[in-house]
Write a structure and sequence with these properties.
The chain has helices at about 5-30, 60-65, 80-100, 105-125, 130-150, 155-175, 185-200, 200-225, 240-260. The protein is an all-alpha fold. The chain folds into two domains: about 1-100, no CATH class; about 100-265, no CATH class.
Length: about 270
């Protein structure tokens, strides 16, 4: 089907979808950690508590037109709202460009959407809610099951072994450190990432697994050098885990092939 739709059209449509999903993710990011319903009540200004009108809730556009302030009381609206929407749109567009319109692309889109929410929640609250991780596992799993029916079952065994590898590494760290070096939320997310990356290939899976730790180490050193964190400061690992997996989806295979050539195995 992807061959019947021009790539530019696919990318554009997925970018628009990403903006809309990103708007919903802003609600998820705020309400899920608070244990609030995602449906009721409707969105309202935290300053004057006036319901937000539909025309003031258009992703990115409304924020720009309102100059980042509530129409009713002029309370500032955080820049993070349009940034989340733009980030989701960009990730959806990249997914369309890389994977086209396929069942596997749907699995990646599920991972992207839930990953954005988990990334922001972990930064804010240092936790990765199981309800979001579970939704990612179900959504991605159903999409990959469809892919197996359409494209064949060749990736299934590799993906399951990848799940075990990711769970073994993160679960092992959690056990070895008695939960101090890794949260259970990270342990729960890891197999989902391993499933989607393993379906793509061993290269993306291995690169994604290693990249999370590399990104974490680089950022950690940068924070200590800049004085923004001490050696014993607790920094959430989820954003690094998710960033590493995201990078591996798009550059994991060429990085892996370059490594194999470097060590003489390619």
């Amino acid at each position: 089907m992807s061959e019947l739709v021009p790539t530019s059209v696919t990318v554009g449509l997925l970018a628009v979808l990403g903006l809309c999903i990103g708007s919903f993710l802003n609600v998820v990011i705020y309400r899920v950690p608070e244990g609030k319903s995602l449906m009721r009540p409707g969105s309202a200004c935290p300053g004057c508590e006036q319901p937000i009108r539909a025309w003031d809730n258009i992703p990115v556009v409304s924020w720009v037109l309102l100059r980042g302030r509530c129409r009713s009381c002029a309370t500032p609206i955080s820049l993070r709202y349009p940034l989340v929407e733009l980030a989701t749109a960009g990730l959806f567009a990249l997914t369309a460009w890389r994977f086209g319109i396929t069942a596997y692309a749907v699995a990646v889109l599920v991972l992207m959407a839930t990953g954005v929410a988990l990334f922001m929640i972990d930064l804010d609250h240092q936790r990765l809610p199981f309800v979001i991780t579970g939704s990612a596992a179900i959504g991605a799993g159903l999409a990959l099951l469809t892919d197996a029916v359409v494209q064949g079952t060749e990736p299934v065994l590799r993906a399951l072994l990848s799940v075990l590898a990711w769970f073994g590494v993160y679960g092992g760290i959690w056990l070895a450190t008695a939960g101090r070096g890794m949260g259970l939320g990270d342990v729960a997310v890891a197999p989902v990432l391993g499933l989607v990356l393993g379906w793509l290939g061993w290269g993306p899976s291995v690169v994604g697994l290693m990249s999370g730790f590399v990104v974490g180490a680089v950022v950690g050193v940068a924070l200590m050098v800049s004085g923004r964190a001490a050696a014993r400061s607790r920094v959430p690992h989820g954003p690094f885990l998710l960033t590493g997996a995201g990078l591996a989806l798009f550059v994991g295979d060429p990085v892996w092939q370059a490594y194999l050539r470097l060590v003489g195995l390619g």
